Amino acid sequence: MQISTTLSGVAPVKASRPAGRLLRALRARRPGHAVRGAKTLIAALLTWGAWESWAPTGQPFLAVATALLMVNASTVHQSVTKAMHSVAARVAGLVVALAAARLLGPTAGAVAVIALLAVLAGPRRTADERLQIASTAVVALTATTTGPLGSLVSPVLQTLTGAVVGIAVNAVLLPPLYVDESASAVRDLAHAMGSLLSDMGDGLERRQLGSRAHGWLHRARSLDKRLAHAEEQVRQADESLRWNTRCVVAPAGRGEMPTGDAFRALRGVALQVRGIARTLADSAQDRHADHHLGHQFLDRYAETLKSAGAAVREFVQPSGPAGSPDTMPRERLRQAIEGVLAWHETMTSLIGRGTLIKPGAWHVYGSLMTDVERLLADLTYADAYANRLSQQGVR
Fold it and tell me: Each residue of 115-125: pLDDT tens digit?
């Protein structure tokens, strides 16, 4: 009895958690859905009114459908390109239908010719465009049996009207921007890489190379998905700024670099992070005793990786007030690398004098040092570029 009472008291709490997350997601998306719904309604009403004002005959269903497609395009640039393709496909379908009707009339042979021409429309046209050309031609061919050939121009004019109205509404009324989504994707990528670097540093410091190296490599390889997602978000954000009347309100803040430049820098950093994880995993698998990494090197390298993780996470954060150089993550990373390089030179000298008789792991040391040095070079170059942009903005 006590067990059932406890479960009955806990179950609603557990069930309410997914519902709460769903409610928060709906609240976060509500403004965007409201704007899209309002734009859709306005585009539909304006298209209907525009068609009836100069073409009182016929119902503008095709015009309204075209306007709905254009106004709901993800970017203004995409709505324009979609409109151009749609109008071109309608015109091509009308031309094919007129030619088939003149030569063969509304017969099965005309339909076969239309289908053949749609298939052979050319490699530059997509499957959707070919289908749109064929469907327009077949509908127009069917219309020739009940009306004059001049009435076939109506579908093209409706498409053009809907495209113009849809593009205008999408471009004037809060055109979509994806700058925030792009910045969020790049920050998530940087935090994932920074966390991996820090975890590798903690693991090396705790002598967990053998037990955790493969997990680090798996996480490094999974960064490819985050890279692809961030790249798509950056591409969409760049496209949303083209021909966008709201782009003046979405510049990078002072001290911040453009999201695209930050992503390109992080893409190079990701290669180094994966190289470090791969080298550590290979070293953990290596059965040669003289190839094992020394504890002194691992301790110094662990400090370097933790500093690198902090620098990568800090890289995508807005620049704050100038502080002490010792407190800046990139400066700590530089100091850590300088310390490891100094230790590296000392150990090389000892090997040269024959003090260390098993230098078999130095190729591993070199690979690890090269990766972290390149990582620092990528961050330093990108940071200097951001500083130049900031100074130009101040001027």
Answer: 777 666 655 56
